[in-house]
Amino acid sequence: MSAGCRMMSLKYDWEQDYIAAILEPDDENLPARLNVARAVMLSRVEFLNRNYYEAKHERNSLAAALVGLHKLRIERLGDRRGLVQEHVFDRVESPSP
After folding, report:
1. Is residue 4 part of a domain?
2. Helix (H), strand (E) counts: the chain
C-alpha cells in the first residue's frame, strides 16, 4: 500500500462491491462492476424487506448508493437502463400497513 492510501472501514458487506464499481477506472470493466454491485445490493434490499424493522440506516444507505450507481452508469457509459428501472426504491420504503 502506498503512503497516500489508507484502508477504508466499511459498515456494510455490500459496500465492497459498491466501492469497486465507483472506483473502477476502466469503462470496459465498469458495466460488469455495476451489475455485480447492483445484484449484491438488491439482494440485501430483499433481505431487509423481509426483516423491515431492522437496519433503517442501512436501508437509507442502500437507496442512496443505488442512485449513485445509476448516475455513474449514465455519466460514464451514457446508459440510462438497468439500475433504477424496477422501482427498487418502492421496495426500500416502508411496507404498507
Report:
1. no
2. 4, 0
Q: Are 48 and 2 in contact (CB under 8 A)?
A: no
- Per-residue pLDDT tens listing for the chain (97 residues): 444 555 678 889 999 999 999 999 999 999 999 999 999 999 999 888 887 776 778 888 998 999 999 999 999 998 766 544 444 544 544 444 4
Residues in CB range of 20: below 8 A, 6 or more apart: 33, 36, 37
From the CB of residue 44, how many other CB atoms can be counted at a distance below 10 Å? Answer: 18
The structure's pTM equals: 0.70
Residue 45 in any domain: the answer is yes
Residue 55 Ramachandran class (φ > 0 left, ψ -120 to 50 alpha, else beta): left
Report how many domains make up the chain. 1
Locate all alpha helices (DSSP H) within 6-55, ordered by sequence.
Answer: 15-22, 30-50
